[in-house]
Amino acid sequence: MKNRYLLLLSVCSSVVLFSCVSSKKLKQAGAKYVQLDSAYLDVQGKLREAQGELNGLKNQNKGLSSDNAALKAKIDDLNRQVDYLKQNNNVVLNQLKDMSVISSAQAESIKKSMENIGAKDAYIKDLQSSIARKDSLNMALVMNLKGAIGDLDDQDINIKVDKGVVYVDISDKLLFKSGSYDVTDRAKVVLGKVAKVLNNQPNIEFMVEGHTDTVPFRSGALLDNWDLSVKRATTVVRLLQKEYGVDPKRMTAAGRSEYLPVADNNSAQGRAANRRTRIVILPQLDQFFKLLERK
């Protein structure tokens, strides 16, 4: 009887111990599942962000491709001129094969034609190289700006390339107090990030433009939307110079009033989009003018 009692006690202890171990493993497995599920959701979020950035870059690339169309058309025209000159020279050379003597004037004409062909070929190569370099610099600048201020809402700030020019549009609610040209504390943070990128590119010149909607405005010394847009532009320029050390020789301040809208002023949303400050990165046209002078 005693032996049976001991055997029963041993069996019960084993069952209790097995039950405790199983429960512990179940809790560990549940915690591991929660951890893996959280990591999965985090990876999914990062994947969506990366996909959005990729779509943005694709749109920028489409804009750059469109901007290059006019210059590529000019290159094609120059190539046609080169082919025409080469064909004419071949005709002349074939005619000269039947001649025993080439006059000095004919020889000089052929020499000049060949030099002209060589000059046009070099000009085309320089133009293609400049286009590629400009596009690369613009894309690098856009990526630097996006990286510096990428934590802001797209409704408040928009960075894009249009016809070879980089634009940074910042909404007025982010920069200024309502109906005023006094900057907000948040504006100083945003402009500080923009200034850091611009200071790293000392050869770039840019224009700060103030824009308004069509709602008439008059307050104190400000007569209308022209005054308001100019005051906002000069406020931003002054802040970039005094607070962040941007060279004033690189900046231009301009007021565009209500006359360059990006949306319909008949809706509140459209008017909000039109009330903005735009930083325009000015293209370095002197390089292209030098190339055109060599044509």
Summed up, the helix count is 7
CATH-defined fold name of the largest domain = 60s Ribosomal Protein L30, Chain: A
Q: Could you tell me the strand content as a percent range?
A: 5-15%
Strand order of the largest sheet: 1-2-5-3-4
Helical content class: 55-70%
3D structure, described in words:
The structure is a single chain. With 295 residues, the protein is of the alpha+beta class. It folds into two domains: 1-49; 67-293, OmpA-like domain (60s Ribosomal Protein L30, Chain: A, 2-Layer Sandwich). Helix content is 67%, strand content 11%. It contains seven helices and five strands; from the N terminus they run H-H-E-E-H-H-E-H-E-H-E-H. The protein has helices at 2-97, 104-149, 172-175, 185-199, 225-244, 268-274, 285-293; strands spanning 157-162, 165-171, 205-211, 251-255, 276-282. A five-stranded mixed sheet has the order 1-2-5-3-4. Strand 1 and strand 2 form a beta hairpin. Helix 2 runs antiparallel to helix 7 (285-293). The radius of gyration is 34 Å and the shape is flat. The relative contact order is 0.08. The model has no long low-confidence stretch (mean pLDDT 77).
Please sum up the structure shown.
By secondary structure, this protein is of the alpha+beta class.
Descriptors:
single chain, 295 residues, alpha+beta, 60s Ribosomal Protein L30, Chain: A, five-stranded mixed sheet, 7 helices, flat
SSE arrangement:
Blueprint: H1 2-97, H2 104-149, E1 157-162, E2 165-171, H3 172-175, H4 185-199, E3 205-211, H5 225-244, E4 251-255, H6 268-274, E5 276-282, H7 285-293
Parallel strand pairs: 3-4
Antiparallel strand pairs: 1-2, 2-5, 3-5
